[in-house]
Amino acid sequence: MNAYQPPYTITQEILNRVAAISEVVGRLTILTDQAKALRLRRINRIRTVHGSLAIEGNTLSEAQITAILEGKRVIAPPREVREVKNALDAYDRFENWKPVSEEDLLEAHRILMSGLIDEAGMYRRSGVGVMAGREVIHMAPPAHRVPHLMADLFDWLSATDAHPLVASSVFHYEFEFIHPFADGNGRLGRLWQSLILARWNPLFADIPVESLIFEHQAEYYQALQESTRQADSAPFITFILRMILDTVTSSAPQVSPQVTPQVGELLAAIRGEMGRKALQSSLGLSDRKSFRERYLKPALSDGLIEMAIPDKPNSRLQKYRLTDEGRQWLAQHGDG
What we know:
Blueprint: H1 12-31, H2 34-55, H3 62-69, H4 78-92, H5 102-113, E1 129-132, E2 135-139, H6 146-159, H7 164-178, H8 185-200, H9 209-215, H10 217-230, H11 234-255, H12 261-269, E3 274-275, H13 276-282, H14 288-301, E4 305-307, E5 319-322, H15 324-333
Antiparallel strand pairs: 1-2, 3-5, 4-5
Helix pairs in contact: 1-11, 2-3, 2-4, 2-9, 4-5, 6-7, 7-8, 7-11, 10-11, 12-14
């Protein structure tokens, strides 16, 4: 039996991050309601595609990616438009792929790189170096060893009892080290890590770790290099877990806003639809500016209340009412 074991050390820092991420993910899972989850999914899918392709030098903005998703024509370099369409297609099939299937990984590469390289969906047939700018930072193993190395990696992934946060990071590092394809290794390695995580918790289908890696691109390459130098992927695992922890922590307010005491008072005061004056007087507030800045604006921006006449925000007849999220928050925290 082949028992390949990728070299990695579990440090205290890695354990602490796994625990912290698990705790935040647990909270997020409880708080996500379906309607909002679907809206978040769309926003985050766009951020994910943008982040992953931007790392590879694609210049399209989130607005342009949204337009492509909506089937609109976008004036941009055809290759970049193709990259975006391919990435959106790949994420559409995300639910169907199994992390331990080499066949699915090859299909994902074929979709991601279709029309961009000749060898889409096939392992490379020649040597390749990983570049950072003009500098070769890693010479990948020779092409003839790739099928064997990938088979070993998948065998390990299907048998490992490492926590999915660790296993997905190890897979990501090993995948980038092997660099099995002529092109598209970065975007596919990141996609596959998300896939492994999404099988642990479905939230990871929608959490854009990609965009954070893009913001810390130099560190991403540095962590890959440092792991190769040490022949131990711990530096890369540590870096990726920091990115995941930052991402899930910053996703939390989108799913469940941290409500200030002022906003809480406002939510409790609303009966049906109420105008600004009625709300101010029911809260016993005389300062209009303070009411707007500390009560009204944050409640609106967190989606806890909405305007009765949204297309005329400054109308003197404007009234405010609770949204589903506002009612949900009150149900959990009211009577306090």
